[in-house]
Design goal:
By secondary structure, this protein is an all-alpha fold. It has five helices and no strands.
């Protein structure tokens, strides 16, 4: 079975037009809102009345995501501090009561670190989803 390769479009004809600076800036600004990779692709699509996919950004979602990223960083720092504190207690303590407390709170530490990781993962998923829209 021979598979046909997709033919690459070869553009041989050139069209030249003059624009005012404001007209060019408007076209360029609209191009930046699209999924077109090249300005020439965007202009061809306009001239040939082909559909153009516009990226849409949800400002409230962006604000929420910014807050979540800050929260994720704070939770991560809290988890790291807690982890360092427990390790320090294990090393420095000769007191049996402190060692016992550290041993019994090891489970709490693991739960905290797992929750911080869950929040980090979910925040990243939300970011990926919103950045593709």
């Amino acid at each position: 079975m021979i598979m046909k390769q997709k033919e690459k479009a070869v553009y041989t004809r050139r069209v030249s037009i003059r624009l005012k600076e404001t007209e060019f800036n408007k076209l360029e600004a609209e191009f930046k809102k699209t999924t077109c990779r090249k300005f020439s692709e965007y202009l061809r699509n306009i001239m040939l009345a082909k559909p153009i996919t516009i990226r849409y950004r949800n400002a409230s979602a962006d604000a929420f995501l910014t807050e979540m990223i800050g929260l994720k960083k704070e939770l991560s720092a809290i988890g790291n501090n807690f982890n360092q504190m427990v390790k320090r207690l294990h090393v420095l303590s000769d007191c049996q009561e402190v060692k016992t407390w550290a041993f019994f709170n090891e489970n709490s530490k693991q739960i905290l670190l797992e929750k911080v990781e869950d929040i980090r993962r979910k925040t990243n998923q939300i970011y990926e989803q919103w950045s593709q829209e």
